[in-house]
Write a structure and sequence with these properties.
Elements lengths: L1 E5 L2 E5 L6 H11 L10 H21 L1
Antiparallel strand pairs: 1-2
Helix pairs in contact: 1-2
Length: about 60
């Protein structure tokens, strides 16, 4: 697994399948409104959306 920086942001490449549930949990936790007030609503929405996509991937793999 590695991270590359692009003009649009960062890409995480080759996340091992066994780590996907942990990544999903981390994203869901970060998007909880009362825990991370320093994130904008748009950022939290993006995190929740990404967590949902990862959840679908975990269900497909598992």
């Amino acid at each position: 697994m590695y991270v590359e920086q692009t003009p649009e942001g960062y890409n995480i490449i080759d996340i091992p399948a066994e780590l996907m549930p942990a990544v999903r949990e981390a994203l869901e936790t970060q998007s909880i409104p009362h825990i991370h007030n320093d994130l904008s609503k748009e950022q939290k929405r993006s995190l929740r959306s990404l967590a949902k996509l990862i959840n679908q991937e975990c269900e497909t793999l598992g």
